[in-house]
Amino acid sequence: MNFQVTVLKILVSYPCGFAVMADLKRDMAILATSGRDWAERTKRLASRIPDLDIFSQGLVERESGGWKITEKGRAVLEFMEARPGTDRTIEAPSVETVAAPVPALPQPADRAKRRRERRERRREARERARASAS
User: Fold this and answer.
1) Whole-number Å distance between alpha carbons of 89 and 35
2) d(Cα 91, Cα 10) in Å, to the nearest integer?
3) Among 51-60, 77-86, 106-115, 123-132, whose mean pLDDT is lowest?
Protein backbone atom coordinates (compact mmCIF):
# COMPACT_ATOMS: atom_id res chain seq x y z
CA MET A 1 0.00 0.00 0.00
CA ASN A 2 1.33 3.43 -0.90
CA PHE A 3 0.99 5.61 2.18
CA GLN A 4 0.99 8.97 0.39
CA VAL A 5 -1.64 8.03 -2.18
CA THR A 6 -3.77 6.55 0.59
CA VAL A 7 -3.56 9.78 2.59
CA LEU A 8 -4.67 11.79 -0.47
CA LYS A 9 -7.57 9.41 -1.12
CA ILE A 10 -8.71 9.52 2.52
CA LEU A 11 -8.51 13.31 2.79
CA VAL A 12 -10.39 13.92 -0.44
CA SER A 13 -13.28 11.83 0.91
CA TYR A 14 -13.82 14.18 3.87
CA PRO A 15 -15.85 17.39 3.66
CA CYS A 16 -13.44 20.31 3.23
CA GLY A 17 -10.62 17.77 2.78
CA PHE A 18 -9.70 17.88 6.48
CA ALA A 19 -9.41 14.88 8.81
CA VAL A 20 -8.25 14.72 12.40
CA MET A 21 -5.44 12.26 13.09
CA ALA A 22 -7.68 9.73 14.83
CA ASP A 23 -9.98 9.49 11.81
CA LEU A 24 -7.03 9.38 9.43
CA LYS A 25 -5.42 6.52 11.36
CA ARG A 26 -8.71 4.60 11.55
CA ASP A 27 -9.35 4.95 7.81
CA MET A 28 -5.73 4.02 7.05
CA ALA A 29 -6.05 0.85 9.15
CA ILE A 30 -9.27 -0.12 7.38
CA LEU A 31 -7.71 0.32 3.94
CA ALA A 32 -4.46 -1.39 4.93
CA THR A 33 -6.39 -4.51 5.92
CA SER A 34 -8.85 -4.41 3.03
CA GLY A 35 -6.82 -6.73 0.85
CA ARG A 36 -4.59 -6.84 -2.16
CA ASP A 37 -6.88 -4.76 -4.40
CA TRP A 38 -6.26 -1.55 -2.47
CA ALA A 39 -2.50 -2.12 -2.37
CA GLU A 40 -2.39 -2.72 -6.11
CA ARG A 41 -4.56 0.31 -6.82
CA THR A 42 -2.40 2.67 -4.76
CA LYS A 43 0.75 1.24 -6.32
CA ARG A 44 -0.70 1.85 -9.79
CA LEU A 45 -1.72 5.41 -8.90
CA ALA A 46 1.66 6.15 -7.33
CA SER A 47 3.43 4.98 -10.48
CA ARG A 48 1.86 7.91 -12.34
CA ILE A 49 3.93 10.34 -10.22
CA PRO A 50 6.97 8.43 -8.97
CA ASP A 51 8.54 11.29 -6.96
CA LEU A 52 5.38 12.03 -4.97
CA ASP A 53 5.97 13.74 -1.61
CA ILE A 54 2.69 15.08 -0.26
CA PHE A 55 4.17 17.46 2.30
CA SER A 56 7.18 18.97 0.54
CA GLN A 57 5.17 19.43 -2.68
CA GLY A 58 2.36 21.21 -0.83
CA LEU A 59 -0.33 18.61 -1.53
CA VAL A 60 -1.25 18.17 2.14
CA GLU A 61 -1.01 20.70 4.96
CA ARG A 62 -0.72 19.98 8.65
CA GLU A 63 -3.38 21.84 10.60
CA SER A 64 -4.36 21.77 14.24
CA GLY A 65 -4.99 18.14 15.11
CA GLY A 66 -5.08 16.82 11.56
CA TRP A 67 -4.19 17.07 7.89
CA LYS A 68 -5.90 18.86 5.01
CA ILE A 69 -5.58 18.26 1.28
CA THR A 70 -4.85 21.37 -0.77
CA GLU A 71 -6.30 22.28 -4.15
CA LYS A 72 -2.95 21.29 -5.64
CA GLY A 73 -3.31 17.92 -3.93
CA ARG A 74 -6.78 17.47 -5.42
CA ALA A 75 -5.45 18.28 -8.88
CA VAL A 76 -2.58 15.80 -8.57
CA LEU A 77 -4.93 13.08 -7.31
CA GLU A 78 -7.29 13.74 -10.21
CA PHE A 79 -4.35 13.42 -12.62
CA MET A 80 -3.30 10.13 -11.04
CA GLU A 81 -6.84 8.77 -11.33
CA ALA A 82 -7.40 9.91 -14.93
CA ARG A 83 -7.59 7.05 -17.36
CA PRO A 84 -5.20 7.42 -20.27
CA GLY A 85 -6.80 7.45 -23.72
CA THR A 86 -6.24 4.46 -25.98
CA ASP A 87 -4.53 6.46 -28.70
CA ARG A 88 -2.44 8.80 -26.58
CA THR A 89 -0.10 8.54 -23.65
CA ILE A 90 -0.28 10.78 -20.65
CA GLU A 91 2.99 11.82 -19.16
CA ALA A 92 3.03 12.71 -15.52
CA PRO A 93 3.53 16.44 -15.09
CA SER A 94 5.88 17.56 -12.43
CA VAL A 95 3.82 18.42 -9.42
CA GLU A 96 4.83 22.07 -9.80
CA THR A 97 3.24 22.29 -13.28
CA VAL A 98 -0.23 21.06 -12.36
CA ALA A 99 -2.35 23.87 -13.73
CA ALA A 100 -5.74 24.94 -12.49
CA PRO A 101 -6.99 23.73 -9.14
CA VAL A 102 -9.81 21.25 -9.28
CA PRO A 103 -12.95 22.25 -7.38
CA ALA A 104 -14.00 19.94 -4.60
CA LEU A 105 -16.61 17.39 -5.50
CA PRO A 106 -19.90 17.86 -3.69
CA GLN A 107 -20.39 15.31 -0.95
CA PRO A 108 -23.68 13.43 -0.77
CA ALA A 109 -25.99 14.77 1.92
CA ASP A 110 -26.41 11.33 3.45
CA ARG A 111 -22.65 11.04 4.01
CA ALA A 112 -22.66 14.24 6.05
CA LYS A 113 -25.70 13.01 7.96
CA ARG A 114 -24.02 9.67 8.75
CA ARG A 115 -20.88 11.47 9.87
CA ARG A 116 -22.89 13.74 12.20
CA GLU A 117 -24.74 10.74 13.62
CA ARG A 118 -21.46 8.89 14.17
CA ARG A 119 -19.96 11.88 15.97
CA GLU A 120 -23.08 12.14 18.14
CA ARG A 121 -22.93 8.43 19.04
CA ARG A 122 -19.25 8.76 19.98
CA ARG A 123 -19.99 11.82 22.12
CA GLU A 124 -22.83 10.03 23.88
CA ALA A 125 -20.63 6.96 24.49
CA ARG A 126 -17.93 9.18 26.04
CA GLU A 127 -20.51 10.83 28.28
CA ARG A 128 -21.85 7.43 29.40
CA ALA A 129 -18.31 6.22 30.10
CA ARG A 130 -17.59 9.34 32.18
CA ALA A 131 -20.85 8.96 34.09
CA SER A 132 -20.22 5.30 34.89
CA ALA A 133 -16.62 6.03 35.93
CA SER A 134 -17.70 8.50 38.59
Assistant:
1) 30
2) 25
3) 106-115
